[in-house]
Amino acid sequence: MLKFISVPQRMPDKRAATERRHDFDEIYAEFQRERAAEQAARCSQCGVPFCQIHCPLGNNIPDWLRLTAEGRIEEAYELAQATNNLPEICGRICPQDRLCEGNCVIEKGFDAVTIGSVEKYITETAWQSGWVKPRRPLRELAQSVGIVGAGPAGLTAAEELRALGYQVTVYDRYDRMGGLMIYGIPNFKLEKDVVARRTALLAEAGVVYRPNFEVGRDAKLAELRRSHDALLIATGVYKAREAELPGNDLPNAVAAMTYLTASNRKGLGDTVSDFENGMLDAKGKAVVVIGGGDTAMDCVRTAVRQGARSVKCLYRRDRANMPGSMREVKHAEEEGVEFIWLAAPKAFHGVGHIREVQAVRMRLVGNDASGRGAPQEVPGSDFRLPADLVIKALGFDPEDLPRLFDEPGLAVTRWGTLKTDFRSFETSLEGVFAAGDIVRGASLVVWAIRDGRDAAASIHTYLSARAARAVPAAAE
Ligand code: FAD
Ligand code: SF4
Ligand code: SF4
Questions:
Q1: What span, in angstroms and rounded, lies between the C-alpha atoms of 464 and 20?
Q2: Residue 8 pLDDT
Q3: Which residues of the chain form CATH 3.50.50.60?
Q4: CA-to-CA distance for 343 and 291, rounded, in angstroms?
Q5: How do residues 192-225 score in pLDDT, each as one tens digit?
Q6: How far is the CA of 40 from the centre of ligand 3 (A)?
Q7: pTM
Q8: How far apart are the C-alpha atoms of 221 and 215, rounded to whole Å?
């Protein structure tokens, strides 16, 4: 260990931008065994590991780095999977520069340990070696749990509850399980078979899936409550924030999720009529993406791969104040995306179809409530950009769940997210719990996993107490 002084940081090999612009495959190769051991050995084994403190799952990072450096990969995997239900996915798509690696103490001066890549290496090795097994319960319990939403929060809770012996059914309105890991996040960050492998593992453990089942349309929440002893709502947030600008209703101004879902479906081999008719295909087009978060980064990089003529990203703050990961911005720039910092759209122009985006220069004045620079228009600085396709990536809000679920007693916050007890994850309805983005607002996969684990533990406490109350009653 402690090799950080003599061994420089080396990420796994990244494919050249000229090559990766033309396909949707992941951009990093796997670590080889020697490279993983060498990079893990850079860790200084801190007494107070800031990497672990800043990992939402509290992963035991220094210990699994040490085991990797010693070549004890199976033990490293056992440790890594003990706190994380989807370690190979977090290793790929966590914004490590803002979490574990961004807080690695050797980051200042020596570059952080490549924690995410080692986590991915350990878990991929485990899959290849047959160490990843379905977590079948030791005993079956009669109580059942219904989970609405098969994203990372719902799937994590499903795995944890099934391992405890509960009868678990996961309902999802989509035809495939995985939530945004399937239909939001593009293949070049997370290949879909990596997700499908996990969902199949849960099915092997006995989790039952009900795809194409939309709660609100196919059943009211009240009906599900009668069918199960407890429910978990993990439906994520999907209502796109709107630009509210002149020309916004023209057909070639599309929401980011509409665009990304079509692209992901194409990659999965589905027929998507709006892609086939050219509406959602960026090929040959001048594309303007509005927004500066990770969703915007996924849109610009997807447009490049679809063969767009040009791809520009308009963001109202500067590079230092953007919410997206710096690593993603770097990838996008390498792939030919042009960022127009400190610029915001004012109107979309065209007859029946947008032809130009009118934008204005911004400057940052002081800080806003988020602690970032507050953007302010620079008067008289309007300019125009040609555009055949405008993609709006301005963030997401929750849908109106009490109305959709026909359940007015389901309390929400003023942002529309579900109100839960912060310790128990229980909503205002007894026996109905909630986790993931529908509670936090748009967040990260790693936080959804954390919530799924905590909510499962709380549901177990609730159901155990109910079962304990039922036993004396039955004995009387
Ligand atoms: P979701 O993943 O949204 O899953 C919710 C599920 O509920 C969906 O499958 C949906 O179909 C289902 N559902 C909704 N309503 C109903 C209903 N009425 N009935 C039945 N089913 C229903 N995070 C990262 O950590 N790294 C990234 O690189 C990253 N990139 C992202 C890129 C994009 C484009 C987007 C949009 C998000 C990204 N995120 C990323 C965020 C991350 O995907 C989410 O924070 C995470 O998926 C939230 O998990 P969840 O389980 O709460 O919800
Ligand atoms: Fe880092 Fe994410 Fe892994 Fe935690 S789960 S160690 S934050 S990559
Ligand atoms: Fe190792 Fe960095 Fe974590 Fe310290 S902060 S234990 S050096 S990975």
A1: 51
A2: 82
A3: 144-237+398-475, 241-393
A4: 10
A5: 999 999 999 999 999 999 999 999 999 999 999 9
A6: 10
A7: 0.94
A8: 7
pLDDT tens track for 69-102: 999 999 999 999 999 999 999 999 999 988 999 9
Average pLDDT over residues 122-142: 96
Q: Tell how far the Cα of 100 is from the centroid of ligand 3, in angstroms.
A: 9
Task: Assign 448 to helix, strand or coil.
Answer: helix
Of all protein residues, whose CA lies closest to atom 18 belonging to ligand 1? 215
Q: Name the segment(s) of the chain with CATH classification 1.10.1060.10.
A: 3-129
Q: Which residues have CB under 8 Å from 451's CB, separation 6+?
A: 153, 156, 425, 435, 436, 439, 440
pLDDT band at 33 (very low <50, low <70, confident <90, very high): confident
pLDDT of res. 179 = 97
- Determine contact, residues 283/305, Cβ cutoff 8 Å: no
Pairing assessment for the beta strands 389-392 and 383-386 based on DSSP bridges? unpaired
**CATH code reported for the domain at 241-393:** 3.50.50.60
pLDDT at 476 over 70: no
Tell me the β-bridge partners of 434: 233
Is the shortest distance between the CB of 184 and ligand 1 below 6 Å? yes
Mutate to test the pocket of ligand 2, among 53, 54, 55, 63 (most ligand atoms within 8 A of CB): 55
pLDDT classification of 472: cutoffs 50, 70, 90: low
Give the chain's largest Cα–Cα span: 82
Q: Read off φ and ψ for residue 287, nearest 5 degrees.
A: -110, 135
Nearest-atom index, ligand 3, CA of 50:
5
User: Strands 396-397 and 239-240: what pairing?
Assistant: antiparallel
Q: Give the Cα separation of 171 and 214 in Å (integer).
A: 7
Consecutive H or E run containing 110: helix 107-110
Cα 199–chain centre separation: 16
What CATH number matches the domain at 3-129, 3.10.129.10, 1.10.1060.10, 1.10.730.10, 3.10.50.30?
1.10.1060.10
Per-residue pLDDT at 387 exceeds 90: yes
Structure letter (DSSP) for residue 429: S
Architecture of domain 144-237+398-475 in this structure: 3-Layer(bba) Sandwich (3.50)
Query: What is the structure's pLDDT at 475?
Result: 56
Q: Which two structure tokens, joined as six digits, stand for 407?
A: 């359940």
